[in-house]
Amino acid sequence: MASQPRKGGVSLPESRVPMKNKPNVDSSIISKLRESSIVSMVSSRGREVATDAILVTQKLMKSTGKAAWIAGTTILILVVPLLIVTDRDQRLNELELQEASLLGVPHPHLNP
Questions:
Q1: What does the radius of gyration of the chain's CA atoms come to, in whole angstroms?
Q2: Which residues contact 42 (CB under 8 A, 6 or more apart)?
Q3: What is the pLDDT along the chain (112 residues), one digit of tens a residue?
Q4: 14, CA 20 to 30 Å: which among 4, 28, 76, 104?
Q5: What b/e string do you get for 45-68 counting C-beta neighbours within 10 Å, with b at 16 or more?
Q6: Taking the C-alpha atoms of 64, 36, 43 and 54 in order, what is their torsion angle to the nearest 10 degrees?
């Protein structure tokens, strides 16, 4: 079943290097930590805890990055246009006040 082509979508060319020969950054970091002198002094339970802590930290960093991306794009889509419109309205009000003072039109707050 794995050799059947998928319907639709884009298919990428097969990799020439088998997956087991490709270096995996996450597993290489964990294997280096497992082989370090500090971890070798700790019991097997300590190694498991250290490995779990590393995996949790990696997942936390990924989710923090995703949250930062969501917050950043939300600000760009919602807040920046609001700031632009507010600034435009403020400039328009200032221009109207300036024109009114030049033309000598009475101030609207002074009329009963």
A1: 31
A2: 50
A3: 455 555 555 555 555 545 555 455 556 766 776 666 665 666 677 778 878 888 888 888 888 989 999 999 999 999 999 999 999 999 999 999 998 888 876 666 655 5
A4: 28
A5: eeeeebeeeeeeeeeeeeeeeeee
A6: 10
**SS3 readout for the chain:** CCCCCCCCCCCCCCCCCCHHHCCCHHHHHHHHHHHCHHHHHCCHHHHHHHHHHHHHHHHHHHHHHHHHHHHHHHHHHHHHHHHHHHHHHHHHHHHHHHHHHHHCCCCCCCCC
**Pairwise CA distance, residues 27 & 51, whole Å:** 11
Enter the pTM of the model: 0.40
